[in-house]
Amino acid sequence: MKKPGGRFIFLDIDGGLNRGHDSSKGGFQWSAVECVEALNLITEATGAEIVVSSAWRHSHTLNGLRKVLKKWGVTGKVTDVTPSHLMGGFDEEEGRNLTVPRIEEIAWWLRKEPGEVNSFVILDDNDPQIGIDFDHPIPHLEPHIVLTDTRLGLTEEQAEKAILILENTAD
Q1: pLDDT tens by residue, 132-160
Q2: I want to staple 82 with a disulfide (CB 3.0 to 4.6 A). Which of 43, 47, 58, 105 is the partner?
Q3: With the C-alpha atoms ordered 19, 23, 25, 26, is the resulting torsion angle positive or negative?
């Protein structure tokens, strides 16, 4: 039996709440007020809870993420983070750890919480980790993805699309 409510937002912070990228300053540096307002529009309209799927979950605890997001003005409940699964090994050519694509971590979280989820939306910029550009995407998750533009972050129009996804896929 599914839990009442049971709506979740999988949130990528960089390219979602942050916009622009300045590598001379170490990447994304700030939250955009309009992006936070767009996220708040979703949570206020649907009661959806936030699950952080962003790479920020590697450098922040769940409580740390809650504090950062609250400081930025996020009003929705931050419930959880997706798991971080290393496939094992190191790619010498790329100079990085081999990881499971973010989309697979989201799918794993959804399988772990089957009775809790009535509807969900994935907010992410066109990051190759999401799995969209891979040869084998996870088709049942694709209709739940709202792609943001790294330079713009989450817009009000995308927030409205996310609300429709959350409302139209709920039981």
Answers
A1: 444 555 667 888 999 998 888 999 999 99
A2: 105
A3: positive
